[in-house]
Design brief:
mainly alpha, 46% helix, single chain, 5 helices, two-stranded antiparallel sheet
Length: 140
Amino acid sequence: LDELQAAILRIKIKHLDKWNEARRKNAQLYNSLFKGFGLDSRLGTPIERQGCKHVYNIYNIRTKNRDGLKDYLASKQVATAVYYPIPLHLQKVYGSLGHKNGDFPNSERASVEVLALPIFPELREDEIRFVAGSISDFLK
């Protein structure tokens, strides 16, 4: 961490709680909309365990047709991300460990099902409604 980054972070950290709460509010709206659209059984959403407080720096959903949904949302000008398209155990850097496809089926399944939606603190309610509605349209 150099001096310039430290100076910027010193200013930004004052806003961290407010930004975390804004993302939590955005996540709650996504969850409510997905439930209202009846997508509970077709879409995996983040789980917040009792006694824990998720900050939702990433809001991942899971769906069987992740790539189709990603393309559909892109056509609607909705930016999404896939953070781990290759499971860690299959990445070249870990090749010396000798793992093969099938060794970690849960991470392999996640690598083709998980999609990150917009969740940044400044995201407006109408934008979240548009994203959720677009997902509902695609899945139905």
